[in-house]
Write a structure and sequence with these properties.
Length: 298
């Protein structure tokens, strides 16, 4: 089996059996492409730990950061593990190798006031697309959805939104979770549902559609949100994940319930959610600095 054929076989198995998303498979393919490019004429069975260390050092020298290298190494390690299970290599050359550390970047979140400005109704050139946009962005902030989760929603969720005030979302690794939908988002969704047929093509089941009537693309959602932020005079570049971060940060500030935020975000590990405790502390530190009589040096 050639290296390229082995990569194809492993990725096909991940897609068919583990049901990884096309986006994840694409990332793995790109990471393994870096491996095959680095090996040159060296067979996979001949790769040793020092080879992998050199490859990682080369990628780091090309500007790849610690988080990207960690993902790349994870893909390589999984691939070599798969080869080892089939007796195609004797040992996993990635074992024991760790990527260089990168400074941890905290996710950026909007303040409550900035979020209110972003979601305030305003007259759009196209009222149908404007209603759609407001429904999408209210739902992002109300329920902490990922971009891929939002664009994959179908019209059938409107019934559970109207009657139960919640929706079922298919998240990463095909994991279903139940998320609440706030009153503002329910109002915006109802307004969009009343206008949706003016934009959607016949038979289209997607909840959110683009100008051609088919399911809206992630890139269009990103551009419409950035456009709205500019029109409303927000200082930061606003992207969909920022609304997810804002949702998590604001809920945590109000409730302090980290486990509840974890469930609503669909994080498999509490460690992924704990980053929002740092955002919460930043908020408290700002309040302290502005309010405490001895917080600032005279």
């Amino acid at each position: 089996m050639t290296p390229a054929a082995a990569v194809d076989a492993w990725l096909a198995e991940l897609s068919d059996q583990r049901r990884l998303s096309p986006h994840t498979i694409s990332n793995y393919r790109r990471d393994l492409g870096k491996l095959l490019a680095a090996t040159g004429e060296t067979p996979l069975a001949g790769l040793l730990v020092h080879h992998i260390r050199r490859f990682v050092a080369q990628l780091h020298g090309q500007g790849l950061g610690g988080r990207s290298l960690a993902r790349t190494l994870s893909a390589w390690r999984g691939f070599f593990g798969w080869l080892g299970e089939r007796g195609l290599i004797k040992a996993n050359p990635c074992d024991g190798i760790r990527p260089p550390k990168s400074p941890r970047m905290l996710p950026k979140a909007l303040s409550v006031d900035e979020t209110a400005r972003l979601l305030a109704p305003f007259e759009d050139d196209d009222p149908v697309q404007g209603a759609r946009d407001l429904a999408m962005f209210e739902l992002f902030y109300s329920s902490g959805l990922r971009l891929a989760e939002l664009v994959s929603l179908d019209c059938e969720v409107l019934d559970s939104v109207a009657h139960e005030g919640e929706i079922r979302v298919l998240g990463k690794r095909s994991k279903l979770r139940l998320v609440p939908v706030g009153s503002k988002a329910r109002e915006a969704l109802a307004a969009w549902a009343a206008l949706r047929e003016q934009l959607a093509k016949p038979g289209e089941k997607a909840l959110f559609v683009g100008q051609r009537g088919g399911r809206i693309s992630p890139r269009l959602v990103e551009s419409r949100l950035a456009r709205r932020a500019v029109l409303l005079g927000l200082p930061a570049h606003v992207h969909p994940h920022m609304l997810r971060h804002s949702f998590a940060s604001h809920v945590l500030q109000s409730s302090g319930d980290l486990r509840a935020v974890q469930e609503m975000l669909g994080h498999a590990s509490i460690a992924s959610t704990q980053v929002y405790t740092h955002l919460d502390f930043q908020h408290l530190a700002k309040v302290y600095d502005s309010a405490h009589p001895r917080a600032k040096a005279k």
